[in-house]
Amino acid sequence: MKKLIFMGILGLFILGSCNSKSGGNHEGHDHGTEAHDHDHEGENHNHEGEDHEGHDHEGEEHSQSTEPVAGHSDEIILPKAKAEAAGVKTSVIAPEAFEQVIKTSGQVLAAQGDESVAVATVAGVVSFRGKVTEGMSVGKGTALVTISSSNIADGDPVQRARIAYEISKKEYERMQALVKNKIVSDKEFAQAEQNYEKAAHWFSQAAAMAHKYAQYSLAGLYRRGRGVEQNDIRAFSLYMSSAEQGNPYASLELAKMYRDGFGTEPDLHQAEWRFQNAYSGFVVLEEKSHDDKLQYRIGQMLHTGTGTSKDDEGAARYWEKSAKLGNINAQYALGTLWLETGSGDSGQAVEWLTKAANAEHSAAQYVLGKLYQDGVYFNKDMDQAMKWFRSAAELGNEYAAYRMGCLLLLGEEIPKDVEAAVKWLSLSAEKGNPYAQYRLGMLYLKGEVFSPQVEVAMKWLQQAAEQKNEWAFYQLGKLYLSGEHVTKNVETAVHYLGLCAEKGNQYAQYVLGKLYLCGRDVSRDREKAVEYLTASAEQGNLYASFLLEHLDAYQDPSLFLAATRLLHHLEKLFCEEVQRPMEMKRYQIDRKRRRKLSEKKQAQGHHRDDQEPAQGIY
Known about the structure:
The protein has 26 helices and 2 strands. A two-stranded antiparallel sheet has the order 1-2. By secondary structure, the protein is mainly α.
């Protein structure tokens, strides 16, 4: 019976205390005996994750027991009598001092304005530099994280630029040789040039991030006008930005621009200072990396005395280290240095040259060819010489192509082949060799090998003259002075002869001296005449000496010119006799026989003074 009464009381207690469904948690929310006036009109209750559907307080009445308690439907209401019966005690919280330690967690935040945000200009992966923990102490300038784009889809812009540049460079150089032979079209070659634009795009992005090597590479594109419009001022600015970040390669290029006045005013003092910075920077880099290219470059600067004192022994030490690492430029440089100065083992020098030549170093191949041709360090062997000359020429060596052309044209040491000679001379001339340009010009002008082609001859002679070839100056001066093959132009003739005379050419000095002494075509100027004739005579010119000795004897220009023409005619006869081939026999005939032959020629319709044309040797 007691059990039933207890269960009944417990049921009434539960029904009285839980008069609605509970959907919230107000644990510790003690309402006591206070009356709560809930006004929910217009109030927004936003409990994330809770379901408030059907939660309607409007007109709700709370009339449990005799205490007017108003509250939420999810609150537990415990009357005082029941609380005492259940052993629940309550107390009023009042502010007062306490000593109890309350353990909690928190975060130290920077004051507003003390924070800064670093934003990367490209996408990348952020990595911590070492172990970074919350709350650790750091100093100013401490590197905490790095960002790299190398392992993400877009890639590192610097690396992408470098790859694009190398691909463009190789394709351009490959097509450059093919387009001349019409193997590839001009359109395809133009496309290869445009590929540099992609490299320039990526280098520009990296340079904007102040990447010093990107700035250096982009400056090179502006300097050469590859992928961007040629702009020396922009190149100079980029080289300067890179050099100021400690890039010795940029310092080297800056030095050249200061020296030559590209992109800035010439400044030899600045040039020397930049060369010194470049040299010292290369030495520091080489000590860390032992790179063969740096060793070769340092050796070159020591050999030429660029940015440092000239020191061939020091150059040889760096070149030898580089050569042992397989650098073919260092092998060639060391080999030629030892052979030219005799400062090293000549046998080892030839070995270094041979290694470089076998690795297709065209300059080393050319030197080996000369050694075989001259019989120095080897027995003379023209087959071996031509083998190395041909190999070097096919690699684009202009000097090897020129030497092959001359050998084939003369036909003295190897069989003569005019067609092949013109081919190799043309290759050398197209690569800018002024000697080949002059030689081709004279071939086309004289017409000794094929019919004269004056326009082609003038093109090659003028190109050689543009490279300050003194014999091209001399020939053009004589052509414009005489009016042979071209329209006579004394002013142009004097210009070219003057340039030739400044180079110390005794023949140009003699021609100008005679011109000013005679006063024909130009105003007579005895002072200039004496100056030019004296300079020519000091170099052993007999005609100049003759004129100087007889300055006052030739007041009549016509008589003077007749005398000099006689001298030239005698010279020509003498040269023809000396240069006549030894194998060509000269037949001596008496006067009676000569008269009979002359009568026979006249009977056949020839003039009395007709002669067979003399065959000259080019």
